[in-house]
Amino acid sequence: MSIRMDNKVCMITGPTSGIGQGTAIELAKLGAKIVLVGRDTDKCERVKQDILRLGGLEPIVIQCDLSSLSEIERAANEFLALDSPLHVLMNNAGAINRSRSVTTDGLEETIAVSYFASFKLTQLLLDCLRKSGNARILNITSNSYFLGRLNFDDLNFEKKYGPLRAYSTSKLAMIQFSRKLAEHLKDADVTVNAVHPGVIYTNIGIGNNEGILKIIADFFWSRIAKPIEYAYKTTLYAATSEELNGVSGQYLTGEKVGNLFSIAKRDDVRDELWDMSQKITGVSFT
Ligand SMILES: NC(=O)c1ccc[n+]([C@@H]2O[C@H](COP(=O)([O-])OP(=O)(O)OC[C@H]3O[C@@H](n4cnc5c(N)ncnc54)[C@H](OP(=O)(O)O)[C@@H]3O)[C@@H](O)[C@H]2O)c1
């Protein structure tokens, strides 16, 4: 059951569609001040107006294309300049790309937006989260993580690219990041968990298809996946439930702590990913 979130500040990346948008609105209904971090300011503005129409507090909008590491730094600094507390950081933005694209930093885009962006944004906001107290980081992952392979010789998928392969690897990275960060934060009043929101009918994998492919994908996805409301149960549970006070480094799914396949529990891979991510993103968790 969700508790009130009055006096809580919740930042959500990718709040302009699907699970991020829905969770932003639901948290605002519970009284939270929402920080919308999206690449499209018009879309963010529409979500902001929806929240205001529902009687929520006026959200803060921060424009950021999360595929750019320098943009992430600028956006984090923009937020820190407000001198606001931060109680929930939901690293939610993600995409599935039919063909391989590369960001301005030379990273494959799926893993850049879903994983490296979350890694960098979290590090830049960590002092603020620590100071705010009783803070939570929600790293949105997927149950497809077990199809991922953290192959450190080809994290950029130059040798072998597949949409599901890149996506699932980024989600496996989110779990390993959460496990390592939880260890790093064991004496802090900040928890971090990887959250699988369910298989949900959203824009993912559809928005960046075109023509007949988009129609076919939409047709099948709408029949297989669950409605969006199902996702809020898990994300709101992860963000608000008192049951989860002090619970960290876990994989949350369907309002409970789930078990992980062994592929997501390899500490040697987790530690190598941590070191490599610090080098790639230019931030350091000290
Ligand atoms: N739907 C599912 O079944 C499912 C299952 C497991 C996990 N998830 C995860 O849930 C999260 C949300 O996905 P969704 O299903 O709600 O998909 P969605 O409807 O496509 O929403 C994705 C969000 O990410 C944003 N985004 C994408 N690229 C971005 C970039 N470069 N910079 C900033 N924002 C960017 C999108 O912004 P725009 O509006 O500007 O495109 C949008 O707000 C993702 O991490 C996804 O992997 C989804």
Helix content: 40-55%
DSSP strand (E) fraction?
5-15%
CATH class: Alpha Beta
Shape: globular
Number of strands: 8
Radius of gyration: 17 Å
> How many separate domains?
1
CATH homologous superfamily title:
NAD(P)-binding Rossmann-like Domain
What is the string of helix and strand elements? Answer: EHEHEHEHEHEHHEEH
Tally of individual helices? 8
Low-confidence stretches: none
Strand order of the largest sheet: 3-2-1-4-5-6-7-8
Quaternary structure of the protein: single chain
Instruction: Round the mean pLDDT to the nearest integer and report it.
Output: 95
Please give the alpha-carbon distance between the first and last residues. Answer: 36 Å
CATH architecture type: 3-Layer(aba) Sandwich
Question: What ligand molecules are bound, each kind once?
Answer: NADP nicotinamide-adenine-dinucleotide phosphate
Notes on the protein architecture:
Helix 4 runs parallel beside helix 5 and helix 5 (163-184) packs across helix 8 (267-281). This protein has an 8-stranded mixed beta sheet with strand order 3-2-1-4-5-6-7-8, sandwiched between helices. It has 286 residues and is α/β, with parallel strands linked by helices. The relative contact order is 0.14. Strand 4, helix 4 (109-132) and strand 5 (135-140) form a beta-alpha-beta unit. It has helices spanning 18-29, 41-53, 69-80, 109-132, 163-184, 211-224, 228-240, 267-281; strands spanning 9-13, 33-38, 60-63, 88-91, 135-140, 190-196, 251-253, 256-258. The model has no long low-confidence stretch (mean pLDDT 95). The structure holds NADP nicotinamide-adenine-dinucleotide phosphate (NAP). NADP nicotinamide-adenine-dinucleotide phosphate (NAP) is lined by residues 14, 16-20, 38-40, 43, 65-67, 92-95, 113-114, 140, 142, 196-197, 199-200, 202-204, 207, 225.
